[in-house]
Every structure is written in C-alpha cells, then in structure tokens.
Predict the 3D structure of the following.
Amino acid sequence: VETKEIHFVEMPEDNEMERGASSYGPRPDVIRRIRQHRDQNPTLNLTLTAISCSPRVFEIKNFLSDTEVNHLLDLAYKSDMHLSSVSAGQASQGAEKTTSRTSTNSWIPRSTDVVVDALYRRAADVLQMNEGLLRWRRGTEIPEFAESSISVAEPLQCVNYQVGQQYTPHHDFVMPSLVNLQPSRFATVLFYLNDD
C-alpha cells in the first residue's frame, strides 16, 4: 500500500502540534507547515504480510517510525493509565473490572495532535477508506454518508501489560445500537510499541 502519510522523523514544536488539533483534522496550511518534520520521500510504501487468512490478520513492519512510537508512549504515560475493564454486555451498560483483563490502559483521541492525526490517515490508506470516516466531519464532506457526521473509529487505546498480566481469549464485539447508521467495529489496527 502506498500512502502520502509519511513518517515523522522528528517532533514538531509544541505550538505546531497544538495548531493541528481539531475534531475535523488539521487545516491544509498546518499539514504543509509540519512537512519539514517528516521523511523527505513523497510517499511511504507499506507491505502487508498475511499472518492468517481466517481470521484475516496482516503484519506491517514499518507502519510507525521510532519518533511516532516514542510520541505515543509519551502520550500514554502522561495520560491517566487506569486498570482496564471489559464491556458489561451491551454498549450502553458500561464496563466492569475483571480478572480476565488485568492490564492498564488509557485513550488518545485523534484530535490530540498532528502526529496522532497522521496515524489515522495512514491507517485509512491501509484500509483503503476515506480518512474522513475516521473523524468527525461536516455533513457535506462525504455525500454518501451525509446522514452521519460521527467517526466510525475509536480513540487509540493504549494498553500496558506487565509481566503476569493478561487479557484472556474473548470475542471483541458488542451489538451496536445503530445510532446514525454507524456500524460496529469491522477492523482492528494494533500497534506494538515495544519489541518484547
């Protein structure tokens, strides 16, 4: 897969990061301004290696740069990492703590900054879908989805497992309420931020 969402090789200045934070994505002038902090190649080629056909599982070795990995780790550790929970059944019923999931986690919204936004855009390219579906959008932006302006993507969930912690085998599905014709999760993208 070829994407124009090339790697960040250095972090933009804080004021550049903040200017890019928006539920609707960064403005085109902000995207052009931060280009200097990214790899100089015009595109990034991502190779998907099939790990399993059923269920479909693919590995992409160079999806994140070291700079992006360090940024996500920094955001996760600065956030409120708390004991992970599981859904109590229906999406509207909340969540509960359990011994089947003993990790800690936090959430990073796409609108956090321009680097996180770029990762969503890169994921959209891999999934071959309009990146506007992965964020809030104006009703006229994608005419065939004009009845809904909410994102079909969740915030990034950062999960930390210490030695001995676990998330036992489970089915990651909740029957959706179909608010504004939004479907349930159809794909999961996992980033492993360490080599262990």
